[in-house]
Amino acid sequence: MLNRLREYFTFRSFRHKLMFASIVCIVLPSVLSFSIYNYLTEGAVRKQAVYNSQESLKLVDGYVANLLKSMLNIANMIQMDSDMNSYFKQRVYGQAQKWDSYTRFTAEDRVRKQLVSLAYAGIWGRESRNSYVTVLLNDGTYFTSYPTDEYDPLDLTKEPWFTELQSLRGFQSHWISSTPTLFASEKKSNPYQISVVRTLRGDASDIYGIVIVTIMENQVNQMFERLVQKEEVMMVDGSNRIISHRDSSKIGQTVSFLNNHEPRAASEIIPIEHENYLVTELPTQFAGWKLVSMQPYESAIVDINSIFTKVFVFQLASFLMFLLLLIYLMRKFTIPLVRLGKVAATVQRGNLDVRSNIRGPDEIGRLGYSFDQMLDKVKEMILEVSATQARKRKAELAMLQAQISPHFLFNVLNSIRMKIMYRGDHESAEMVGSLSKLLRMTISQDKNDIPLHEEIELVTDYMKLMNMRQKEKAELQVAVAAEALLVKVPRFCLQPLIENAIIHGLNRRAGTIRVEADMGERVLQLSVKDSGTGMNAEELEALRLKIVTAQSDENEARKEHGGYFSGIGLANVYERMKMTFGEAFRMHIQSAEGEGTAIIMSIPREEA
To answer: Where would I find the beta strands (DSSP E) of 45-131?
Structure first.
């Protein structure tokens, strides 16, 4: 299975590899970028959802604060109204009993009208028209902004909070959270009420009465629906008991998931009944109460998340479009490479006439041009090798034709040499011996390469023969390094150079021919120098050109050399050495008029 997957994901095409690598280099950073984007987006969405929830709750808090403040303002105005307080004190301390009935009625009516005015107009205006104001004095007298058939104010003395009023100081207030509505006309539509209590104090700071301002809980929760429609908003007391809620059935219940941190704005994501809720708390300015909003987290972020989702979808669509464009461009750009691959496959099958014809200023265009040039060069090299092989066969044939084929001739020459020596003519015997050695080397076809010392012996015998024919003898000087004597070289690589030096360099006159051999690091340096007349620049250039083009012809060589022993010539030697040692072989010719000629051969050798 692993091998099958490996084979499936192994791309044999360079185009597919390039496309796959490009896609990976784009997809991986994109996936990483999307992951980071998603992580950062999640944090930003959560932060924005918390901010929106807190801002919504602050809006509600502004309304609730004004509503509760209006209740305090009503109580403050009653506390601060000198006329009403004077009348209240006179009633409590018995001074009002001396008044006649009309005065007492007028004073009581004036107080009731003021209370009604405060309850229905007040500072809060029409929103506080449902407030209920009660002034209860210690003597059992009470004044209200509502008809007394609604509720008997004296029943307030039976409430559990009534005994706690003695602990209030100055303008301190006692807030009464949601309790069942006491007013008969409100019970059906508004089951709960919220009240604030202030004390009325005399000159000695003793309490002679209380002021109670009451509103319906409905006045609070109706703003929850008006200001925050998508959240569940409630007001709770210090014990996390619900004071106000849209659902009146939840009033009085304790919210268990709320924390008891210090009064400050805070938001948390809390799991409630297997669903995450965004819960925000905001303390109010009064009574230690606080506002709480709760909303399913998914619902809280749906609008914000939709914006980020649209951005994400846009980025994803842009990425896909760019990816498709990249694949298209990659296929477009790699078409020349595919064509070049097909041409290479055709060449591999042996067709060297096909060409890619890919041209252009870029790397692929230059590669196509170079590939076509390489094919042209290969064809030229094949033709050149074929021509070289033909010339080599022709040279070998010329050498075979130059050989004295009959072996018996060698035996006859040995017999002649022995007879001459027997008669005492040692010089003639030596001449015949040298000729015999040359003939032996000529007919030995199984020895293409011979040690350098044998080649030196061969040219030494050749010089002896040539000196016997000439009137003026040439001197052969040999300076060969000892380590070069055993290096193998092609046979007859020096004899044509010696022959050329005698005939053309010295013009068959007396002179010196020097053969030198030095060992370099990886080359054998062979040189043949004569003390002849030399050549001018034009003759030297013509000879160099003839050697390089290797246009040798044995018949012409024989005519030039007057039919002497070797007609192989310099061009033949150059061509044979080139074929044997390759391009590393070098032949240099140095000459100047009156200074002689030097032929230097650099023969590469392999390290032992």
So the answer is: none
Please state, in angstroms and rounded to a whole number, the distance separating the CA atoms of residues 198 and 176. Answer: 11
For residue 63, with 0-12 CB atoms within 10 Å meaning exposed, 13-18 middle and 19 or more buried, which class applies? middle
Question: Does residue 5 surpass a pLDDT of 60?
Answer: no
Q: Which two tokens stand for residue 38?
A: 């998603």
Cα(253)–Cα(258) distance, integer angstroms:
12
Cα 28 to its chain centre, rounded Å, is 8
Which domains does the chain show, CATH number per domain? 24-325 (3.30.450.20), 447-604 (3.30.565.10)
Instruction: Provide the H-helix boundaries in 349-451.
Output: 363-402, 407-423, 426-443
Distances (CA, A) of 334 to 238, 342, 343, 348, 367: 75, 13, 14, 21, 13
Helices (H), 161-243: 218-227
Lookup: tokens for 169: 């100081």
Q: What is the pLDDT of residue 404?
A: 41
What's the mean pLDDT in 429-458? 73
Q: Measured between alpha carbons, how far is 172 from 163 in angstroms, rounded to an integer?
A: 15
Alpha carbons 57 and 69: distance in angstroms, whole number: 18
Q: Rounded CA gap, 425 and 416, in Å?
A: 11
With a cut of 70, say whether residue 367 has pLDDT above it.
yes
For residues 318 and 320, what is the distance between their CA atoms, to the nearest angstrom? 5
- Among the residue ranges 268-282, 320-334, 396-410, 565-579, the one predicted with the least confidence is 396-410
Query: Which residues, in sequence order, are CB contacts of 416 under 8 Å at separation 6+?
Result: 432
The C-alpha atoms of residue 359 and residue 365 are separated, in whole angstroms, by 4
Q: In which order are the strands placed within the sheet that holds 266-272?
A: 242-245, 232-236, 290-296, 275-283, 266-272
Our measurement of the distance from residue 214's CA atom to the centroid of its chain's CA atoms, rounded to an integer in Å, reads 70
Q: What is the pLDDT of residue 68?
A: 87
User: How many Cα atoms sit within 13 Å of 533 on the Cβ side?
Assistant: 12
Asked whether residue 265 carries a pLDDT value surpassing 80, the answer given is no
Q: What is the separation, in whole angstroms, between the first and last Cα of the chain?
A: 53
pTM: 0.49
Q: DSSP readout, 290-302?
A: EEEEEEEHHHHHH
Model confidence at 155, pLDDT cuts 50, 70, 90, reads confident
Q: Which helix (H) or strand (E) holds 77?
A: helix 14-80
Which residues, including other chains, have CB under 8 Å from residue 223's CB and lie 6 or more apart?
60, 63, 64, 67
CB 488 within 8 Å of CB 571: no
